[in-house]
Amino acid sequence: MTVAVGVIGVGMIGEDHIRRLTRVLSGGRVVALSDVDASRAEAVASRLPGGATVHAAGPDLIADGQVDAVMVTSWGPTHAEYVLAGLAAGKPVFCEKPLATTQEDCLRIIEAEVSGGRRLVQVGFMRRYDGAYRALKAVLADGTIGAPTMFHSAHRNPSVPDYYTADSAITDTAVHDIDVTRWLLDEEITAATVLKPRRSSRAAGDLHDPLVLLLETASGVLVDVEIAVTVGYGYDIRGEVVGETGTAALDDGGGVLVRAAGAHSGRVPVDWRERFLRAYDVELQEWIDAVAAGTCTGPSSWDGYAATAVADAGTQALRTGDRVPVSLVDRPDLYDK
Ligand code: NAD
Ligand code: ISE
User: To test the ligand 1 pocket, which listed residue (17, 34, 35, 101) has its Cβ within 8 A of the most ligand atoms?
Assistant: First the structure.
């Protein structure tokens, strides 16, 4: 079966996912597009081999009988409406992070999915598909470093767009570290605190850059997330888990380290597309394969909800300077592992 995919939002990541569905992966085909910027959708459709139907609005695309599965890659605040419409239509949905920008909307999605009786939503937390993060998780699982006590995570972006706000550092950027913490350690996050180092002269507007987000987990692991989004030099993702008997760290992205002329050098990825290129491929191939098999795997609506709840605690901590506890509703059985 070839899965016919409809894509809502054909901006930066939408186009990149369309490229991989069209040219890199197998078993999927993009048949329909929609974007509030209709000219953008038309332009992307015209570049697709065989074209694609352009719909004026997302709900029309979801209702289109030729669309088997929906990919939501529009702006975060618009995700909930489209995910809910996809669920109402009984169609599988791949939704880029965040699942929704409020906990209330995440819970509406969970309620709709649970009442349908089966998982249909996969959230775009692509770090779970990255080779280095998967190797790190395997080391934790085999007990090589003993029980984890701390996780140091660093998330550095060269720059951010103008619409990026002070809260975006948590809701848009650190949300990946939040998800990967829950996944690596296999437990929920229970509290968040934000510390503010001296503000970089490169930070504009009300952005406080860099930040340190401190997370506490249910078992007491302490996680420090460095969020720095104006570093200029490249896209740099670090991670090290400290265990009772050893440590395990991500390597530097699998590139080549050159030693010559009295110096050593390697490549720093330019952005998330380069650093997580292969992870996005694996993520979407697993989504297409699951849709074709009539199943749903990967980060769930529950994971999307938990990440938004922790991000909410983080933004409150950023504003108040307080340590903010995270409280989650009871997890429905549908999301048992
Ligand atoms: P973008 O601004 O480049 O693209 C978003 C597109 O959505 C634009 O073309 C815009 O016109 C369209 N759009 C906005 N509102 C719409 C609506 N109501 N209906 C239909 N289309 C609409 O943004 P982007 O960087 O591609 O980000 C899109 C989403 O992907 C965001 O949620 C972002 O957080 C997420 N993202 C995830 C990653 C990752 O690493 N997983 C990386 C980048 C972006
Ligand atoms: C972007 O939306 C992403 O999701 C990237 O992975 C992240 O590094 C970046 O900070 C976000 O703006």
Answer: 35
Q: Cis omega before residue 210 (within 30°)?
A: yes
147 is written with which tokens? 């029980």
Residues 171, 232: Cα–Cα separation, whole Å: 21
Question: Residue 96 in contact with residue 122, Cβ under 8 Å?
Answer: no
- Residue 256's pLDDT is 82
> Is the per-residue pLDDT at 107 higher than 80?
yes
Q: Whose CA is nearest to atom 11 of ligand 2?
A: 173
Report residue 243: phi and psi, to 5°. Answer: -110, 180
Q: Using the mean position of ligand 2's atoms as its centre, give its distance from the Cα of residue 334 in Å.
A: 29
Q: Which residues, 6+ apart, have CB-to-CB distance to 132 below 8 Å? A: 239, 250, 251, 253, 254
Q: Is the CB of 303 under 6 A from ligand 1?
A: no
What is each CA distance from 160 to 96, 234, 290, in whole angstroms? 18, 12, 34
Ligand found nearest the CA of 161: 2
- Give pTM, 2 decimals: 0.97
Q: Is 46 exposed, middle or buried (0-12, 13-18, 19+ CB in 10 A)?
A: exposed
CB of 17 within 6 A of ligand 2: the answer is: no
pLDDT tens, position by position, 151-208: 999 999 999 998 899 999 999 999 999 999 999 999 999 999 999 999 999 999 999 9
Ligand 1 contacts CB of residue 6 (under 6 A):
no
